[in-house]
Amino acid sequence: MPIKFLDKLSQDLSELLNDKEEYNVIIEVDQEQNKKSFTAHSAVLRYRSSHFNKELTNNVTNDDNNNKIITKPNTSAQIFEIILKYIYGGIINTENMDARTLFELMIVADKLEFEDLSLKLEDYLIESKASWLRTHFSIVYRSIFKNNIFKNLENFYNDIIAKYPNLIFESAEFTTLHESALVSILKRDDLQMKESEIWNYVIKWGTAQNHTLPDKLEGWSDENFTTLKTTLQRCLPLIRYFHISNFDVINKIKPYKKILDEQIWNDLKQHLMLPNQPIEYIILPPRINLTQELPKRINNELFSTVINEEHAAMISSWIDNQPTSYSIRNYPYEFQLILRGSKDGFAPRTFWDICNGYDNTIVVAKVKGTNEIIGGFNPLAWDSTKNILVKTNKSFIFSFEDNNIENFILSRVKNEHEALFYFPIKDKYGPIFGYDEFMMKSDVSNFSKDKQSMCYGSDVYEKSIRSSDKFSIVDYEVMTNN
């Protein structure tokens, strides 16, 4: 049975990296004021990295001391130092590494052909940094298709896009989307868009790739249609033509019939006139409508008993200052449940005990006797030890009337010095936004029993979010978007 001393081996090799006498390779990375040189050993680089093995064989020069020189101007010194320590010691310490650094490290590891490392980092980002991935959608999504290796991230994002397609289709960068990315989206059976809209966006993307095409379709030649057909050859077979209404086939598909294979167009025409007659073209199934699916679960809990995912999307857009119309349709946020009154209890002290230390939290409550939902966002950490007014310019309060997504009031803080109040008497007072613009209170240690909670005035926030009547609640929740 072999006895392994891998930790000692890793330690010794890591110390070799600091040897400034026996090195024979100098690696210059980064640019201008951030430029930095690292020393290394060709034997280690060759056997640990196929990329550096090729570089050392084919593309290096030597300095006056016969050291081999490798330059990596597009790699940051910070990232390369981590990579070099990995080459020698086989260890990456992610404990204090922020999500952006992890992402950049994954990309560099892939470029340098450390496949095991890049894929491990990919999985770690999905498992531990999902919130960051969602809020940095654009930069990450485009990067993963340059090498077409990060399949787990591709699936992670396509799951979001399938549910919130306008996130990508209505973005300003849609027409610059990599072809492989568009194809991977079109393959989704659960893409939540009308097929005629998908067709419109595919045409938009295809024409944008060919700047010489005339602006008006009436001026197109056969050659122009052939150009578009060639550009879209991977996309066109993925359209579910036979699940497009007759009206849209005539008005949207027919003008571009020359980019379709003759068999598809002939079968479409027959289907319009004789929908029950067999055709030769293999009909793709309709895309799955997910609007009736079971409620989303987070940590084995129902997503929310107070709000639905449309509410969550709208609240997410307020946090990031996105247009409301954008958020309702496609904002890919996910909240982590911290406290639920019906599960953890309605005592004010319970709020402080459970939520202490959590930041970026959303408090939502359902008013008893109405369908109103009221809530507030606190970007700072709740602190049960403090009895002070708390300053922030990013908090806001809100309400939804009759549980209606369209009937909302959003009120942002206008006096940042009094944005929140951590009241001294924690056994009676829970979260307080302003002084009493949104305050949860109970004299009997149960928010659901006595009508002591209130939403009075609008001195600290822009406007009042409900009438001045005091109320009790049916249920309430605290969630974080971290």
Provide a descriptive summary of the structure in words:
With 482 residues, this protein is α+β, with helices and mostly antiparallel strands. The protein has three domains: 143 residues, Potassium Channel Kv1.1, Chain A (2-Layer Sandwich), CATH 3.30.710.10; 112 residues, Serine Threonine Protein Phosphatase 5, Tetratricopeptide repeat (Alpha Horseshoe); 184 residues, no CATH class. A six-stranded antiparallel β-sheet has the order 7-16-8-9-11-12. It has a four-stranded mixed β-sheet with strand order 2-1-4-3. A two-stranded antiparallel sheet has the order 5-6. The longest helix has 14 residues. About 4% of the residues have low confidence.
Topology:
Blueprint: H1 6-17, E1 25-29, E2 36-40, H2 42-48, H3 50-58, E3 61-62, E4 68-72, H4 77-89, H5 99-111, H6 115-128, H7 130-135, H8 137-147, H9 151-163, H10 166-169, H11 179-186, H12 195-208, H13 222-231, H14 246-253, H15 262-273, E5 297-298, E6 301-302, H16 309-319, H17 324-330, E7 336-340, H18 341-344, H19 348-355, E8 361-367, E9 373-378, E10 389-390, E11 396-400, E12 408-412, E13 420-421, E14 429-433, E15 438-441, E16 473-480
Parallel strand pairs: 1-4
Antiparallel strand pairs: 1-2, 3-4, 5-6, 7-16, 8-9, 8-16, 9-11, 10-13, 11-12, 14-15
Helix pairs in contact: 1-4, 2-3, 4-5, 5-6, 8-9, 16-17
InterPro entries: BACK, BTB/POZ_dom, BTB_POZ_domain_cont_9, SKP1/BTB/POZ_sf, TLDc_dom
Domain TLDc: 305-482
Domain BTB: 23-96
